[in-house]
């Protein structure tokens, strides 16, 4: 019997208009009755996810920043901080790429140097707390206290997110050979690419939750659509790539769900649990 269900957000649970399925609240009620934990696993910031599900009266687990932060019962239970010295090189490379924008993702906020309207509009979809600063690297430099994280402390950076105006896979994915051994680098969307510590991804986050709650590979279900879901699909028996998923994700998934615009996630759960 399934004990935990994890789903990606964009391109998976949400439709193309970024709407949550209308039946989700009903499905979550039924899962609560069956003592099944529901996990939202996303590249998004925790504060964005928490706002999205604030009106749902359910005890959700949040995997945010592609596995770099895990929240359970409103508390951080895992955070993988990137060494400040490792941030400099990828930031310097990204600054030289035409059309690229940088976000440093922290425990308390996210930070960017780009004020452009198109970029900010996209970034606000995923980052509820976002500050525009002169130099993102100042966030991790000693003595810099000009940010609204707190009066005394700097933030803990757990992910670098890069945005490209046209295509992350085409224009970003081959530019970071110098640092590929220092990070797990994942194309997380058509316009996005993420850098986390080596060994940090949605799959390892799922494995941490499985271990904590004594849940097995065979008792886990997951849904995804893009390459940042790759390891998550390998963490469970009931791995579903959406019909609209990246071809490489379909290759490692055991099953296929209807597309995100056909409520694929909800439909699979309803059928499996007969609800």
SSE order and pairing:
Blueprint: E1 4-7, H1 9-13, H2 24-33, E2 37-41, H3 46-52, E3 61-64, E4 69-72, E5 75-79, H4 84-95, E6 100-106, E7 110-112, H5 117-123, E8 130-132, E9 157-164, H6 168-171, E10 183-189, E11 192-197, H7 202-213, E12 220-224, H8 230-233, E13 238-242, H9 247-252, E14 255-257, H10 264-273
Parallel strand pairs: 1-2, 1-12, 2-3, 7-8, 12-13, 13-14
Antiparallel strand pairs: 3-4, 4-5, 6-7, 6-9, 9-11, 10-11
Order of helices and strands: EHHEHEEEHEEHEEHEEHEHEHEH
- Share of residues in strands: 25-35%
User: What is the CATH homologous superfamily assignment of the largest domain?
Assistant: HAD superfamily/HAD-like
How would you characterize the largest beta sheet? 8 strands, mixed
Counted up, domains total: 2
Number of strands: 14
How helix-rich are the residues, as a percent range?
25-40%
What CATH architecture of the largest domain do you see? 3-Layer(aba) Sandwich
Can you give the mean pLDDT?
Answer: 93
Briefly note the structural class of the backbone.
Answer: alpha/beta
How would you describe the oligomerization state of the chains in this entry? Answer: single chain
Uncertain residue ranges: 143-153
What is the overall shape?
A: globular
Strands of the biggest beta sheet: in what spatial order?
Answer: 5-4-3-2-1-12-13-14
| Number of DSSP helical runs | 10
